[in-house]
Specification:
By secondary structure, the chain is α/β, with parallel strands linked by helices. It has 28 helices and 19 strands. The protein has 3 domains: 5-259, 2-enoyl-CoA Hydratase, Chain A, domain 1 (Alpha-Beta Complex), CATH 3.90.226; 290-469, Rossmann fold (3-Layer(aba) Sandwich); 512-595, N-(1-d-carboxylethyl)-l-norvaline Dehydrogenase, domain 2. The strands form 4 sheets. The chain has an 8-stranded mixed sheet, sandwiched between helices. It has a 6-stranded mixed sheet with strand order 1-2-3-4-6-9, with helices on both faces.
Length: 695
């Protein structure tokens, strides 16, 4: 088998090229190839070597196909040590990205040249581990402990200019990699330079106060996670050691993280994000063209969808009901794009070109005649949406995909308002649509396969995480959300406080508790949902009435300054409102409920059991194709802690028997609500987990 690493010479220079497409991952073959090349170089007459890569990038990281498999020699730490030990100078050329093991390989070399467009980083903590091939030891010795620790714990990518300023690389180049390496090697030959090993540099100084401040910052930014602080420990503990001692400590801490359940959850999230778009039924199905997008409705959601499309290079025609609404929608888009310019995400000239060349705003439906895909984002009313879709029959060209952004409503009924239901699907964006990565793609009864494929193609163009969902009230996410929110409301009726529930769930890992989230979204949204469902409310289902009282009092959350929390200049992020407890206590008394105490542990167990149980129904009914689809919905749309892997991954971790026990215990208080999902009972009875259904 041909090695992905080749060795050639040009005079006194050895040129060692890595060619392992698509991203030159540090596979076993690459590691073995580098090892063989170094052995040859050590014995060869060449006086300097250049290590570079073919294709679009240097080593972009580990080989993901090797994840979860027994490691095969040589290991990357041994390869990096071998590079550093060379007795003749060794130049590394960085182009594209040198991430994780890629940067560690570069740090093992003696000199580094970087193309101006390249980036470097150590993102291992995103996978629940730490740089395990010298990254936590060599980078601090090269650039100082604090700059290195910040890069390691943040997992951010460092652009070329900053890498040069920090001293990660020695020079920048605009040449292609081979030429850049040759130029540097010739300069080293002319200078008579020898090897320059990072392991021979002075130990980095440890500023205890600065370390403590960074530790506090990292803990606050990554609540509940262990990898970031463990990586910081590796860098700090190794600072006063010799390099071999530091590498030994790094390896010890690396192995502790390899055994952490958080690593398994983060790996699940990593692979799930890639696998969720791979549907067997779409294999070989070609999507329709996507050049011009129509958006109907220029409010918060429609404007956000338009911005997402514009930033991805698509042309947008946005329709509003009249000239005043058109002007307001365009102003909203301009404001959002101005924010992107201010944050450095978009250049001003690019913004101006987008507004001049890519965006049309009008109240004339006829402007949609050339649109390849039209997204309706109007008021959440079946009558209004059906009216829009019936109008599209007259203006949309044959083959145009017609999409509704409904959060709850029946996409089959909406599709029936057109003469072309096969062209209709749901595209449920999450707000703000230009920021949130989740996109639920709702597959209606008559949606054509190529139309569904077009939805996934749009998601790819917008760099979103697409999840196929079947038709039901709320699809995947909002359907499950309603049930676990009800479980929280039930606990409040029984005696818990909304503020205790929020605190317990923040401690579990959510960025916000459900009642803080309700304040952020607006309590009018929950009120309208309850009113919509009231006519079909099943007998026996309990609802608390206090949320409606808050709505009737005009307490709609952040936008009115009061909801569950009080928002003012003193506490802009909110403080608990004691009147809430009084309102809830009055309802308990009215209903004859004697409140009891809940522990934080019981709150988390019930909340998660309700979420898991309804998720099991969603999978069992085929609304979600696989458990991992549910997990990705909650990781990317609902703030579920990534380091816990998603609700169904978490269920497997704690055991389905434990989830069932929680449900059965709660059923003693409310047998109507707490009914185990058939799929949950089946898997638990067979001793299987949800992972067995992911394929």
């Amino acid at each position: 088998m041909t090695s992905p690493v080749t060795y050639e010479t040009e005079g006194e220079i050895a040129l060692i090229r890595i060619d392992n497409p698509p991203v030159n991952a540090a596979s076993q073959a690459v590691r073995a190839g580098i090892e063989a090349a170094m052995t040859r170089f050590a014995e060869a007459p060449e006086k300097v070597a250049v290590l570079y890569a073919a294709g679009r990038t240097f080593i972009a990281g580990a080989d993901i196909t090797e994840f979860g498999k027994p490691p095969q020699p040589p290991g990357l730490p041994q390869v990096c040590d071998l590079l550093e030990s060379q007795e003749k100078p060794l130049v590394c050329v960085i182009h594209g990205t040198a991430l994780g093991g890629g940067l560690e390989v570069a740090l093992g070399c003696h000199y580094r040249v970087m193309l101006k467009s390249a980036r470097v980083g150590l993102p291992e903590t995103l996978l629940g581990i730490l740089p395990g091939a010298g990254g936590t030891q060599r980078l601090p010795r090269l650039i100082g402990l604090m700059p290195a620790a910040e890069i390691i714990t943040s997992a951010r990518q460092v652009p070329a200019a900053e890498a040069l300023d920090l001293g990660i690389v020695d020079r920048l180049s605009e040449d292609e990699p081979r030429a850049a390496g040759l130029a540097y090697a010739r300069d080293l030959l002319a200078e008579g330079a020898g090897p320059r090993r990072i392991g021979e540099l002075s130990n980095p100084e440890v500023d205890e106060a600065a370390v403590a401040a960074l530790r506090e910052k990292v803990a606050k930014a990554n609540p509940g996670q262990v990898a970031q602080l463990t990586a910081l420990d590796a860098a700090v503990r190794g600072a006063p050691m010799t390099l071999p001692e530091g590498l030994k400590e790094e390896r010890r801490l690396f192995m502790t993280l390899m055994e952490s359940p958080q690593r398994g959850a983060l790996i699940h999230a990593f692979f799930g994000e890639r696998k969720v778009a791979q549907l067997p039924e779409l294999k070989g199905v070609q999507p329709r063209a996507l050049a011009q997008i129509g958006v109907i409705g220029g409010g918060t959601m429609g404007g956000g969808i338009a911005v997402a499309c514009l930033l991805s290079g698509l042309s947008v025609v946005l329709i509003e009901r009249d000239a005043e609404a058109v002007a307001k929608a365009r102003a909203g888009i301009e404001k959002t794009l101005a924010g992107s310019v201010k944050r450095g995400k978009l250049k001003a000239d690019k913004r101006d070109a987008i507004l001049a060349e890519k965006l049309v705003t009008t109240d004339d439906y006829a402007a949609l005649s050339d649109a390849d895909l039209i997204i309706e984002a109007v008021f959440e009313s079946m009558e209004v949406k059906k009216e829009v879709f019936s109008r599209l029959d007259d203006v949309a060209k044959p083959g145009a995909v017609l999409a509704t952004n409904t959060s709850y409503l029946d996409v089959n009924e909406i599709a029936a308002a057109t003469s072309r239901p096969g062209d209709v699907l749901g595209l449920h964006f999450f707000s703000p649509a230009h920021v949130m990565r989740l996109l639920e793609i709702v597959d209606a009864e008559q949606t054509a396969p190529e139309v569904l494929a077009t939805g996934f193609a749009l998601a790819k163009a917008l760099k979103k995480v697409p999840v196929r969902a079947g038709v039901c009230d709320g699809f995947i996410g909002n359907r499950i959300l309603r049930i676990f929110r009800l479980s929280a409301d039930h606990m409040i009726l029984a005696g818990a406080s909304p503020f205790q529930i929020d605190r317990a769930l923040k401690a579990f890992g959510f960025a916000m508790g459900p009642y803080a989230v309700a304040d952020l979204a607006g309590l009018d949204i929950g009120y309208m949902t309850r009113q919509r469902l009231l006519p079909t409310k099943p007998e026996g289902e309990r609802w608390g009435d206090w949320p409606d009282r808050l709505y009737e009092l005009g307490r709609l959350g952040r936008k009115t300054g009061r909801g569950y929390y009080i928002y003012d200049e003193e506490t802009p992020n909110g403080r608990p409102d004691p009147e809430i407890d009084e309102i809830i206590a009055a309802e308990r008394a009215e209903k004859g409920i004697t409140p009891r105490e809940f522990t934080d542990e019981e709150i988390v167990e019930r909340y998660m059991a309700a979420m898991i149980n309804e998720a099991a129904r969603v999978v069992g009914e085929g609304i979600a194709a696989r458990p991992l689809d549910v997990d990705m919905v909650f990781l990317f749309g609902y703030g579920f802690p990534r380091w816990r892997g998603g609700p169904l991954f978490y269920a497997d971790q704690i055991g389905l028997d434990k989830v069932l026990a929680t449900i059965r215990d709660a059923a003693r208080e409310d047998a109507w609500f707490w009914q185990p999902a058939p799929l949950l009972e089946k898997l638990a009875g067979e001793g299987r987990g949800f992972a067995s259904l992911n394929g």
